[in-house]
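Example 3.2
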Amino acid sequence: MAIAAAVLAGGRSSRMGRDKALIQLEPSGPTLLELVLDRVALVADQRFIVATDRPRYGGFGVPVEPDHFPDAAALGGIATALEVVDGARCLVVPCDLPFLNGPLLTHLAKRAESADIVVPTVRGESRQRGGVIYQTLHAIYGPACLPFIGDQLKREERQIVRFFDQVTVLPIDEATVRGYDPELWSFFNVNTPEALATARVHQRALANALGASSASPDILGGMENAE
C-alpha cells in the first residue's frame, strides 16, 4: 500500500555538537539526511522533513514541515507527521539512521494495513519495560493514532509507547527483523562523535564489500530478505 515517510530532523544535536543531519560518512558523500531520504523512497510515495528553522534543509528536494509541537520531543514529531499526511499511514524515522534496511522497510510497508502501528522490536530492557524494546522511531503509524497522541500531548506525557494500549499494534519480532538485518544496523543512531566514528568504519566495510562483488547496490541497505 502507498504510505508517506517523515524524517524527523529538528533535534538540537547536543551530543554531536553540530547538526548531525548534515554530516557525511564519506568525503564528498551524501549527508545523513540524504541517506535516510533516499532509503525511505523505496517504500514512500510522499516524503518530507519535520524540522523548524532549518533553511538549509530546503535544498534536499522534499518539503520541510515545521514541527507543530516543538516542545514535545519525538512524540510531537510523530503527531506533526500524521497531521501533514492527513489520514494516510506514515513511516516515521529520524535523520540519524544511515543504515536503514530496504527489505525491512518493505516488509513493514506490506504489513501497514494490518494495524494502527507496525513497529520492529528487539529484546532488551529500557524505560518501556517488559523485556522488549519497541523501535518507535522506525515504525509506521496510522491515522487512528493521532487523537490518542493529542490527548497524551495535552497531559505533557512524551513517552511514545504510552498510548500503544489504545490502538492496534503489530510488533515485528526480533527474529523476523534479523532475517532482513542480522546485526540490527537499521537502528544504529549516529548521534555522538563516537557513534559517527563507528558508522564511518561500517560504511567503509560496506563500500569495500560492494566493490568486491557484483551484487546490487542495495547491499548498503542490507540484502538479507526473509521472504
